[in-house]
Amino acid sequence: MSDLQYEMVVCIINTGFSDLVMEAAKSAGARGGTVIRGRGTADPEAEEFFHITIQPDKEIVMILVPAAIKDDVLRAVYKSAGLSAQSQGIAFSLPVSRTAGLAEPPAAPDPLDFAAGPQDNRPD
User: Fold this and answer.
1) Burial of residue 11, with CB atoms counted within 10 A of its CB: 0-12 exposed, 13-18 middle, 19 or more buried
2) Residues 88 and 52 sit within 8 Å (Cβ to Cβ)
3) Does residue 74 contact residue 100 with C-beta atoms inside 8 Å?
């Protein structure tokens, strides 16, 4: 198991907009996500309060991201698929205390690591 710092960004949207959400999330640094189909249960009072028509068929997009980029991903997702868009999405994040089965991103090479051997930085 890993103790890396992750957050789960969750976006609930009208059916058919999950690709839009994932494009926005990836533009902010997310690597992928999971889409689950669902059904909303809002009543007519909620529609009147928010001044929107609520479509019952939903998609739930779950995106596990490093905590450092969570705010960027939330902003990007909400900007493209928020309540004022056709997708009528809501987005929020949840803390993730433990993970298992995740591949850690490859570390950037250390430019001062001389044990790695000489690097030829001359232009071709």
Assistant:
1) buried
2) yes
3) no
pLDDT in tens, 45-80: 877 777 777 778 899 999 999 999 999 999 999 999
Residue 101: CB atoms within 10 Å = 6
What's the predicted TM-score (pTM) here?
Answer: 0.71
User: Which distant-in-sequence residues (6+ apart) come within 8 Å of 37 by Cβ?
Assistant: 15, 57, 58, 59, 60
Candidates 77, 75, 56, 73; CA nearest to 14 is 56
**Residue 37 contacts residue 58 (beta carbons within 8 Å):** yes
Q: Which CATH class is domain 6-99?
A: alpha beta
Q: What residue segments make up the domains of the chain, in order of their start?
A: 6-99
Q: How many CB atoms lie within 10 A of CB 67?
A: 13
Q: What are the tokens at 37?
A: 């189909």
